[in-house]
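seq/struct pair 1
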Amino acid sequence: YIFMNDIIIIGSGPSSLLTLLYLVIHMPYLKYSIVSKSFNEFHCTYGVFMHHLKDSWIFNYLDKDKLITHIYNIAVKSPNEINTNVKYGIIDNEYLYNAILNIIGNKAQFAEKKVLNISKIGQSYFVKCHDKTTYTSRFVIEGTGKYGAIGVKYKDNYPLYKQYFIGYKIKTKKNIDCSKCILLDWNSNSNFKSFGYIIPYDKNTVLIEETVLSTLNDVPCNYRMLEELLHNRIKSFNDNDNDNDNVEFIEKDSIPLNVNIPCFKQSKSFGIGQCGNIINHLSGYTISYNIAVIPEICNLIMKHNYNLEKVYADFWTIKRRLLYTINIIGLHFMESLTKNELIEFHNYYFNTIVSKSNYNFNTMFLCNNYSIIRFIFSFRHYIFLPKKLMWKIIK
């Protein structure tokens, strides 16, 4: 056995490292280990809604100007362009990763190993790795992303939705407006339920992505369709001139939009990030939501003296479970819509609902810091939703 830890974290993505960062800063007297099959700089493009990080703890330790390298106003096309005052930022992965490691330093033990299983004897947890090394601790946190958690057992109540995407970061001779990004560009020319992201990095560099918003279907077999639509989108963006394209990198992946709520008594670890269902279920965004709740999770561990069941019960409150259920209804609703109905819904949503109440937008993308009464009252903005769409929500 390896020496006794107070807390072990499995996984080395943003949620895991940010959690470890908070712990070693605020509880430096504890012993920590982080176990991951590999430690690499983050490779995904991480976007955040800036008002979700307002007054965030993270800016006490990380340089905001270095962490958020690009900030834009959000626009949507559904199909006409709707400009908003909502600010959106892109995280510098290299700075985030290295800054966290520099702050943590030798305050935690890093182990590059693959975890096989987690067991519990008495009040101690045993994390066994493929090389037969076993780490012991008083509490285990898992942030293993879409690959699922070993120690988290779920209540199998709801269908599981995913988002699929392909994105190219390209160089182009076209001058790009760097003041805004387009997060929803619905193209009605195809019945395939995908939309485009257009995120500029400078006046000649842009990330263009084709995304399936949410689905229960097996989309990998349709990646070819996604890529074909992406190529058409890039061609249209470049005014039919592809000769000058220079692809800097390609993103091709899927992410879960939900997992089920953990079983408090049967779990042997606390899930964070995607595998912990700490996801903005209607969008797939996780990083800003996890940054927001990391202090709450860490303080609950101390409050309940490492009692996993009590930490789960105190975190997954009735309010969080209610909002999760409502968001699942929203995913089911979007799955039931045709491509044209999705365009119609988002046109109404951003033109009528978001313009009248940022609260609806905040709830949709953060799923946190809300009042039940205020949340329920916000549904008054849906009264004038087209009847055929309202009926589908009711059903």
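seq/struct pair 2
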Amino acid sequence: MNTIRLLYLVSNLGCSGPTNQLYNLIYHLDPDRFKASLVTLSPEPSLSSWNKFRDLRLKIHSLGLSRVSGVMLNKVYLHRLLNKFCPDIIHSQGIRSDYLNSQLKNYPSRVATQRNNPLIDYPLLYGKLSGQLMANFHLKLLKRIPQVITCSQSISEANNHLGLKSTFISNGIRHKPDNRTSKKEEKLKLRIELGLPASGKLFVWSGPFIPRKMPEIAIKTFNLLQTNSDIVLCLLGDGPLHESCIRASHSKRIIFKGHVNNVDKYLEAADGFISTSRSEGMPNSVLESLAHGVPVILSDIPSHKEILSYSNKAGVLYPLRDAKKLAEII
């Protein structure tokens, strides 16, 4: 059987859900059937998974160009690498990588993975006008790539309304033997180890503190709970809204831990997981929570509904932005 040469094209390997999903894809490749190469466009951010990928069986190369210089030089440098690697399939994710992918018409077997809805996410990230223009541009690029794979059925359905043909393969997570529900005594030991309250119900919120994730709703919710309540919220992550959320917190039951590398431990110690997002592709954090047997309370957006459609016993939905209703459900 001939070996299939794959080339993955991404902006960088910054720690994020899409990067984790890319790692899973490459990790599970059969080395007897596939030979993988990975090309990044930009220098790595401070929080990077570069070393993690370097341990995999693949060639990894960075063009190391800034966004400005990359506009002119990425295409030139990439063609040099393509001539060297001679890939059978090119697989991109992200707007900059998809732009280059859309230009490579000499390579018929090209794939793009779409992990979000640009029309919702980009205006929140880049501002209303700039975000709308970027979203329209990205969708136009995707239409020039032969095969578009989305990470959820809900994104594919949104694409259909925009005239973009796509197929969905839902995000998954790597199953680990220790992904199981912790016993009460194990939870207690973990909470002490993590510096969390030993008693009461513990809910975890995890993700970047950005407008799309709406962490302020979780803060507002726990501010509404009775002062004598033994319910605790632990927020994991960092980002532009982190400081404002800390200032908005008026309860000792709200704990901020910042960015951590052991989210699994917090999930093992938790009684529930909360997602307040206004838009998602197929969220890793929710899938990880369920893998640990932790029930979830999710905003009623399409991707969350899609997850609970597999099992309505896994969690409950609440109306997006409705902190009062979320508090009632908790």
